[in-house]
Amino acid sequence: MKKFIFAAVLPVLHIFGVIDASAAIPYFTDEAVRSVDRSTVQSEGKALLDELGRELPAYEKSAGNETVLLRRLELLRRGMELLERNLEATDSPELICYAAVAIEELRRFQEYFREIITRSARPPLPVKVINVTDFGAAGDGVTDNSEPFRKALAHAMSFRDRYACTIMIPDGTFYFANPRMGVPFRADYLVPPEKGGGLDKIRKTNGYIVIGNQKNLTVAGSGNTELLFDRPLPGVSCIKLGACDNVTVKDLFIDYKMRPFTQGTITEINAQEGSVVLQSDDPEAAMPGMAHFRRGHMWSFTPEGTFQWEHGFFMMKKAEKAGPLAVRYFFGDDRGGNFNPVPLSAGREAVRKLRPGMKMVHVSRVHGGGVQLDFCRFSTIENVTVYASQAMAFLDTNGYADSFISCNIRRRPGRMISTNGDGFHLASPLFGSAVVNCRGEYLYDDGLNTYSRHALVEKQLLSGGWSVSDIAPFPSSLVGVVNQETGQITALARCSRLPDRSYQLSPAVPLVSREMIRAGNGNGRQLPDSLICFSRNGTGFVAIDTSFENHHGKSFMIQSPHSLVENCSSVNAHQAGFHVGTMGNWCEYTSPHNVILRKNRTEGGKHGLMIFYMLPGNRIAGCNPLRDILLEDNSFQNCRSGRPVLLHNIAQPERR
Question: Quick one: CATH architecture of 261-363?
Answer without folding.
Answer: Beta Barrel (2.40)
